[in-house]
Amino acid sequence: MFELSPEEYIAMMLSLKISLWSVGITLIPGVYIGWLLARYDFIGKSLVDGILHLPLVLPPVVTGYILLLALGRQGLVGKWLYQQFDITLAFNWKGAVLATALMSFPLMVRSIRLSISAIDIQLEQAARSLGASSINCFFSITLPLAIPGIITGSILAFARSLGEFGATITFVGNIEGETRTLPLAIYSYIQMPGGEGSAQRLLIISVIIALAALLFSGFIEQRIAPWLRGK
Amino acid sequence: MLSVDLQLQQGSFTLNSKFSLENSVTGLFGLSGSGKSTLLSLIAGLKQPDNGWIRLNGKYLYCQSKNIKLPANKRKVGVVFQDNQLFPHLTVMQNLAYGYNRTDNSRRRFEAAEIIDLLEISHLLAKRPSQLSGGEKQRIALGRALLASPQLLLLDEPLASLDKGLKEQILPFLKRVKDELKLPMVYVSHSIEEILHLTDHLLVINKGEILGCGLFYDVIKAKNVQDIVGAMGLENTITANIINNDTKLGYSIAEIKGHTLFLPLANKLSKGDSCYISIRSNEIAIAKHHIAHISIQNQIKGTIISYTKQTSGISLNIDIGTTLIVDITSKAFSELELKQGSEVYCLIKAQSFSFLGKAG
After folding, report:
1. How many angstroms separate the CA atoms of A81 and B327, rounded?
2. pLDDT tens sequence across B244-302
3. B chain contacts of residue A125, beta-carbon cutoff 8 Å
4. For chain B, what is the domain count?
5. CATH number for the domain including A13?
C-alpha cells in the first residue's frame, strides 16, 4: 500500500545524504564560531553575528542567487575553483550541500553558542588554575558540557536542511537524482498532472523524518543533559 | 613570599593594590565590591591587569615592564571558589585527579591518598558532584586544588554559601590544611570570625586599594579603616581574657583592662584563653551612676575623652582603659548633661557581645 517509486526513493535518499553532509561540514565550524561568540569579545563581533544570521532573514532565493553569482561556473570564485581544481558546485549535489549548510548554519551556531554561554565561566577558570591549557580546558570541560547544545543544534540544522527549498532551487536547480530533494520533488509532483499520489507519499516521509528528528532531540534533552550534570 | 603591585581599570572600578605577604595564611578582608575577588583573579592569572607585577617566591608570575605574563595554568596558584565549581560531568575521583594528572611527577607535593585521608572524603570518590552536600562539595574542591600541588592557595569566600553549621564542619579541615600541609594561603572573607579561626594576619582592601596589612588588632585600630570597621560592627573590638566559664548558668567571666565582664558562655574557650570580643557602638547605654537591680550584667566605669556630632546623634569616645565608641542620641546627650571629662557608666548586656575568635 505504501511503496515508494524509484524516483521517490531517490529523492528521499538524496535529501538524507545532502542534509547529513550539510550537518557534517558545519559541525566543527559551528562549534568553533559558537564558542568564539559565547566566550570572546572582539572588534566587529556584531558584524560577524549579523552576517552569520543573514541567511535566516534574507529570502532564501536571494541567498541562492548570491551563491550562483559567486560560485556559478561564471562566478568570481566559481570560475577560479573550476579552473584551478576542476570543482563545480552549481547544479550538482555538492552545491546543494553548500546551500543547505549556509541556510542551517545560523541555527546550529545559535544553539551551540547558547549552551556554551550557559556553562559557568568559573568552571573553565578552575580548570585553568588546575593546570589545563586553554585548548585542554576546551576539550575536557567546555566541549563535554556543551554536548547537549551541540546535538540539539545539529538536529535543528538537519531538520532545516531537509526543508531547504529556495536557495537550493536557485543555486543548483531541480535535477532529478542530483539536486531534487524531498521538498523539490514534492513541488515538482504537485505541478505534474497525476503526481498527487507521489507528492502525498513524500509528504508523509517528510513528516516522519522531521518528527523522528524532533523526538530524538527530546530524548537527548531528557537523558544526556541530566547525565552530564550527574543526576 | 607573595608581593603584588597591580593596577586595573574596569569600567568605573579602579584597582590599585600594593602589598607583600610573608605569613603562611593571610585573611583578605573587605566589603562586597571592594575588589577582593578581582585581586584574587589577577593573582591566579584569570584576569589581566593593566600594569604592575606579581612575584611569588622570588619569581615573577606577571610583570608588565619585563613582559612576563604566565598563563593561569603555569602559575601553580590554586583557587577554591565560593561555589566550589566541581566539574559536573566527572566523578569526585576524576575531579580530584584533574589537577593531579596535569602536574609533573617531580613537582607533586601531595599524594591522593594523603589528601583523601586528610579531608575524610574516601567514601565519596565514586559519586558525582550533584550527589554531594554543600560541605562535601567544598571539601572536594579543596582537595582538587591541593592535588595540583600549588605554591599558593587562594580561597575566595569558600564558606560563604554554606550555612553556619556546615561552616563549622569545614573550618577544622581548613585549619588542618594550614597546620599539616604548611601551604601558604590567602583567605578571602567578609566574616572576621572565619578569618580569625585560621589566622590573625589580615589584609584589608577597600575600593581596590589596600588599606592595611598586618596583625588583626593593629590593622583594625588604624585610622583609615575605621569606616569599614564600623560598617562591619567591629568598631569596639577588645582583647579579653577568660577567667571562668559557668556552664550551669550559661555565662563566662572575662577580664579587660582591670574590668570584670560577664559574657555569653564561650564554650570553645577555656580558662586563661585570650580572645577578641566586639560590641556595636549603638548597643551600649550610658548612665551617670551605677544602677542597682537591673538585668544588664555589665556596668563599666569610664571617662568621656571626646565626642563628635554625627547626623544620627552623638558619638562618644570613652576611656575605660581602652577606648570604647558609644553612639547615643543628641537628646540623651543633652539630658544627661554630658561633656568632656564626665564620668559615666557604660551599660552592656552580656548577650550584646560577640566573640570574634581566639587571640594570639
Report:
1. 84
2. 888 888 889 999 888 898 998 887 888 888 888 889 988 999 999 999 899 998 999 99
3. 41, 44, 46, 72, 79, 81, 85
4. 2
5. 1.10.3720.10
